[in-house]
């Protein structure tokens, strides 16, 4: 390469570099202008944000007091509920203990009543039904004797055997 060509190439590159510097300068100026616009917007928004932040802090402190008050009341209600539950539990224990005692008494009473009914039934059977059976047996014997006397003597031995088997 000769010197002129080299000089031309270097001139072109220097020109391109100059153009890029100009483009960078324009971009930097536009960026500075955009940053200024953003700063103006932020400056306009900042007082509103500070007021909102102050309101939020005030609301937070008031809510904190209210939350503490509600928490205190909720704890009082829980303590009262716990006390009432202990009372109800003791009442239920007492009632179930009394119910058990009464159930035991009813069971003893029923057992006694059943044994008395059983002894009464046994007494009735021994004092009334046994004599009735005996009377019924005697009446059956008398009936058989009367029937035998009215009928006369049996004609065959098979009839006598059948009658004896029935009697036994």
How is this structure best summarized?
The chain is built from two helices and no strands. The protein has 168 residues and is mostly helical.
Write the layout of secondary structure elements.
Elements: H1 3-151, H2 157-167
Helix and strand element order: HH
Compute the separation of the termini in Å. 158 Å
Radius of gyration: 62 Å
Per DSSP, the total helix count is 2
Strand content: under 5%
How many separate domains? 1
In terms of quaternary structure, the protein is: single chain
Largest sheet: none
Q: What's the average pLDDT?
A: 87
Task: Give your account of this protein's structure.
This protein is mainly alpha-helical and 168 residues long. The protein has one domain (13-167). It is built from two helices and no strands. The model has no long low-confidence stretch (mean pLDDT 87).
Task: Name the features.
mainly alpha; 0% strand; 168 residues; 95% helix; elongated
């Amino acid at each position: 390469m000769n010197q002129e060509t080299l000089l031309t190439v270097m001139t072109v590159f220097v020109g391109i570099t100059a153009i890029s510097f100009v483009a960078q300068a324009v971009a930097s100026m536009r960026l500075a202008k955009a940053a200024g616009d953003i700063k103006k917007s932020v400056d306009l928004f900042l007082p509103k944000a500070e007021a909102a932040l102050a309101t939020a802090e005030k609301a937070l402190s008031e809510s904190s007091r209210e939350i503490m008050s509600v928490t205190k009341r909720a704890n009082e209600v829980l303590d009262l509920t716990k006390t009432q539950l202990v009372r109800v539990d003791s009442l239920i224990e007492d009632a179930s203990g009394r119910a058990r005692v009464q159930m035991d008494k009813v069971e003893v009473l029923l057992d006694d009543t059943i044994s008395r009914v059983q002894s009464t039934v046994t007494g009735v059977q021994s004092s009334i039904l046994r004599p009735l059976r005996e009377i019924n047996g005697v009446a059956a014997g008398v009936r058989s004797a009367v029937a035998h006397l009215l009928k006369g003597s049996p004609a065959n031995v098979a009839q006598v055997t059948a009658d004896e088997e029935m009697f036994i």
